[in-house]
Specification:
The chain has about 425 residues and is of the alpha/beta class. Helix content is about 30%, strand content about 15%. The longest helix has 21 residues. The termini are far apart.
Length: about 425
Amino acid sequence: MKKNILFLLIDCLRADVAYGEKGQAQTPTLSSLRKRGTTFSNAISVASNTSPSVASMLTGLYPYAHGIRSLLGYKLHPDCVTLAELLKRQGYKTCAMVSGPLTEEMGLNRGFDRYQWRSGNSHFYNGFGDELVTFIRERFPDGPWFLFVHFFELHVPRRVTERFRSSYYGKAPYEQSLSCLDWHLGEVLKEVDMENTMVILHADHGEKYLSRFWENIIPRYKKQFMRIGWRLGPESRLGRSLWLGHSYHCYDFLMRVPLIIAGKGIFPEDRTITSMVSQIDILPTILDAVGQREDMPGKIEGKSLIPLLSGEDYTDRHCYVQACDPEIPETEWLAGLRTTRWKYLIPLNGGKRNPMLYDLQNDPYETRNVIDNNPRVVEELQKEFAEMITRGAQLYSPDRIRMSDDEKEKVGSLLKELGYL
């Protein structure tokens, strides 16, 4: 019998907060899920914003190949095959419940029998939570099924019910919001047949969050703070302090995300894998886990994580990362490589930002650019990055798929409502 697949994607969830390494969020549901499955503690997002990251999860490709570079203007390459399409071919019923920027205009609805987008006003605590529980209980009486659920509650404005507005659940609104969502996810999982369901808990990217005072001030004057921060330099100490949220850089607090997979008989209980993995590995891992390895697309860049469970090591693996904020000029978008020790970043389209090299072992907070002190490392990573982009262009036509003017106007209007523009 094929396992059902429940994919819980929490927008803006940092790995260090999810795993209790930072802050005071109360997360018994996450802790319980970790005990019931395997944690990949060094999962790296491909991008510090939503749409490119989700596209990589669902295609096994990096953004330069699947075509979705940012939140606005780009859409999925028509030749890409999605996870939902592959599972549907094997008899799975497929459904996605999404929010935020994940509109149908992106093309990520491909392969889903039902693709339900909800507005920013619809969240877990005003009806969606009950709808989700009812859907799981009644809509899928027979398997197998694949349900992809995107939670927007941690995103600004943080959603928190009154019960969790207490310092016990975290000092910052972000931590309280996670405590609140964690409890409600526990109620959802009570409806899931864990014996026959693989549960994946993941995040699209991380988040920079602040105290309640600053989180009330900065969003009101976001554009002014961004302009000042940009003039000072996003990499400068003062400049980076003025940014809130995500998508403006590739710092690890924006790129390291939780990845927990529970599936009885497949993923060992209470196990932690420390090898660095990427979001492009999710599609091949799911197909491998449900016995559909032969359906693996030929044109993917990801690798199944199943071999890691038997002791294989991906130590030499390097992960592509990017920061493509729609409010930052495309010439100043960042992209590069993350290794277990180094992070190498350059302006993606020949902009004026200085290339960067961070030594993650000796400078985990990425405060010192050591690019001038390590020419050999830079040369090696520069070459590898160029080769990676070239290989990606050979997978699919390098021509990026652009939205029509009408699609761009519609998505742009939505992004303004969400506070992105």
